[in-house]
């Protein structure tokens, strides 16, 4: 008669806790760490609260995280990194901007491409954007958030992204990572308009990133 082996019931909470307890060793490189496995020598597992690792224990309260604090692999990847985001006023762009500012304590800087629209300048639209309640927690926990964001006036549907010479030089000199999220999602637009934004716009951002 075969001996039956009783399997322990799957515990989702334990699985998530173990998964999120991954922490980068202080001596580990902070770039080119993907893909990684638990066997990689520069990773270590520690039994600690995953929310503490992610900096989530200060929910709704201003926080200060020491430069010496080692975070998750994603947090460490973005340590000191300057990011260029297009489509920052859209649904995904807003969430991305908020998440980077709030969850990456040692992020370098965000350069946000916003176009002038309907009589409002890019700065006017940015000020209006910050009134969205999605940024409420970020404002509470990272009071100096404005020092992390620079608005860049531009339009992906225009040649050269309609960037000024100074802004173009600024981006080329400082940006490390590009998130391209700008697009025309109105499916009833004439093909030439959709092409200018969704195809040529992506090509222009790619060309800028390659310079």
Could you write a compact summary of the structure shown?
This protein is of the alpha/beta class and 211 residues long. The chain is 36% helix and 12% strand.
Commentary on this structure:
- By secondary structure, the chain is of the alpha/beta class.
- It has a domain at 71-210: Rossmann fold (3-Layer(aba) Sandwich).
- Helix content is 36%, strand content 12%.
- The protein is built from eight helices and six strands, in the order H-E-E-H-H-E-H-E-H-H-E-H-E-H.
- It has helices at residues 12-20, 50-53, 73-77, 91-103, 122-129, 136-141, 165-174, 191-210; strands at 22-24, 43-45, 82-86, 109-114, 149-153, 177-180.
- The strands form two sheets. Strands 5-4-3-6 form a four-stranded parallel sheet, sandwiched between helices. It has a two-stranded antiparallel ribbon with strand order 1-2.
- The longest helix is centred in the C-terminal third of the chain and has 20 residues, at 191-210.
- The N and C termini lie far apart (70 Å).
- It catalyses: a long-chain fatty acyl-CoA + 2 NADPH + 2 H(+) = a long-chain primary fatty alcohol + 2 NADP(+) + CoA.
- Pfam families: NAD_binding_4.
- InterPro entries: FAR, FAR_NAD-bd, NAD(P)-bd_dom_sf.
- Belongs to the fatty acyl-CoA reductase family.
- Catalyzes the reduction of fatty acyl-CoA to fatty alcohols.
